[in-house]
UniProtKB/TrEMBL annotation, chains A, B:
Source organism of this protein record: Alkalicoccobacillus plakortidis
Top-level taxon of origin: Bacteria
Coiled-coil zones: none
One Pfam assignment: Vir_act_alpha_C
Source taxonomy: Bacteria, Bacillati, Bacillota, Bacilli, Bacillales
PANTHER family cross-referenced by the UniProt entry: NEGATIVE TRANSCRIPTION REGULATOR PADR (PTHR43252:SF6), TRANSCRIPTIONAL REGULATOR YQJI (PTHR43252)
Domain Transcription regulator PadR N-terminal: 7-79
Name this protein carries in UniProt: PadR family transcriptional regulator
Domain Transcription regulator PadR C-terminal: 93-172
DNA sequence: CGCGCCATGTAAGCAGTTACATGATTCC
DNA sequence: GGAATCATGTAACTGCTTACATGGCGCG
C-alpha cells in the first residue's frame, strides 16, 4: 500500500505524468523505494477510481498523448492522514550481498575479496552519482526539503556501505584462514 | 529466488529445523532480509523436491515432531556457484519513513519533529539490541565470520540512520518555516 | 485458565517483476 | 538503419503477507 503514498507524495509537489513518475523513482527514490512502469500505471488507475487523483489529457502532435495527474482534496487529506496517523513500519531490506556475506567462511580468501571489491566499486559509483545530483540540485536552489533530506540519506548510506566493506576487507586480510 | 540461497546458507552452517530458521531470520538477518514461516516451509519443500536439501525426521514426545534439514552435495555446489558466479544485484529497500520524509514540507514543524523522534527511538532500541547480540556472540567465541560481519553491518546501519535523523532535526530546527 | 513456546503446514490475496504490445520522432 | 526517448497500457507469473488450522506442554 505504500507505493500509493509515494505516488501521492510526488503528485502533491508537481504536475506529472506516469512516465515522469517512473523517472523520479529512478533518479530520486532509488535509495529507499523501487517500482516499475507497469505497477505505477496500474496504481494510478486504481487511485483515480478511488478519487484520490484525477488527470488532464494533453494531446500532442510529435509525441504520444499524455495524462497529467493532480491530487484531489480527498487525495491530499489521505496523504497527510497517512503521514501523521499511520504507525511507522520499519524498512524492509532485501540485500543479496549480505546473504553472500553470511557464507564467506565457505568461500576462498580470493573469492571473498573479489566480491567485496565489486561491491565497493558499485557503491562508489552510486555515491559519485548521488553527490553529483545533490550538488546540481543545490545549485538549482529548488528548496525541496524532502528531496534534500533523502539525497543526503542516499549519500550517507553509500558511504556507510563502503566503509563497512573496507572494514570487512581489513578483517579478512588480517586473518590467515583460506 | 534469493530466499533459497539464504536458506541454503543457514543450513550449510548447522543442522536446523524450519522453526529454527524462522528465528535465525528474526535475530540475525533482520538487517538485510525478511521472511515468514509460511514462506520458509514452502521453500524448504520446493528445495527438497529439487534435491538441494534433505531431512531427517525426529520423533519427540513432549513436543511436536521435527524435521532437521541438511544440504545435499547438489545443494552445496549450487550455493557456491550462486555466490561466485551469479552477478550481484543491488539491495532492494522499501523504507516507508523515507516516503514520509519526502512530504515533510506539507507537514507542520511539530509533526515532522515528532516523526523524527519516533524513528530515532526505534533505531536506538534496534542498535542497543544489536550491540547486545554482538557482545554476547563475541563472548561465545563462535568464530562465525559471516555473522560477525552482518551484525556489524546492522550496527553501522542503525548508527547512520540515527545520525541522519539528528542532522535532519538540526536542519529543520534552524529553518523558520511552519 | 490463559498465554507463550514448540512445530508444522495450507489457502487466499496482494505486491512486485517480466514480458508482450504499439508507434512516432529524434539523434547518430 | 538502428537505438533512444516519449508515452501508455495489459497479461502472466513469481514472491510475499496474512489468515486459517492443529495440539500438547509448561509457567504463573
Amino acid at each position: 500500500m505504500s507505493l500509493r503514498y509515494a505516488l501521492l507524495g510526488i503528485i502533491s509537489k508537481r504536475r506529472v505524468t506516469g512516465y515522469d513518475v517512473v523517472h523520479i523513482f529512478k533518479q530520486q527514490m532509488v535509495h529507499f523505494w523501487g517500482s516499475t512502469h507497469s505497477q505505477i500505471y496500474t496504481e494510478l488507475h486504481k487511485m483515480e477510481k478511488e478519487e484520490l487523483v484525477d488527470h488532464e489529457l494533453v494531446i500532442q502532435e510529435s509525441s504520444p498523448n499524455k495524462k497529467i495527474y493532480s491530487l484531489t482534496d480527498k487525495g491530499r487529506k489521505e496523504l497527510i492522514r497517512w503521514a501523521i496517523e499511520e504507525p511507522l513500519k520499519s524498512a524492509k531490506i532485501k540485500d543479496e550481498f549480505l546473504i553472500k556475506t553470511t557464507i564467506f567462511p565457505i568461500l576462498t580468501h580470493k573469492e571473498v575479496l573479489t566480491l567485496l571489491d565489486e561491491v565497493i566499486e558499485r557503491e562508489r559509483i552510486t555515491l559519485e552519482k548521488t553527490e553529483a545530483w545533490r550538488d546540481h540540485f543545490k545549485q538549482d536552489n529548488k528548496q525541496d526539503l524532502g528531496a534534500l533530506l533523502t539525497v543526503e540519506y542516499g549519500i550517507r548510506y553509500a558511504k556507510m556501505y563502503i566503509e563497512w566493506c573496507q572494514w570487512a576487507k581489513s578483517l579478512i586480510e588480517k586473518g590467515t584462514t583460506n
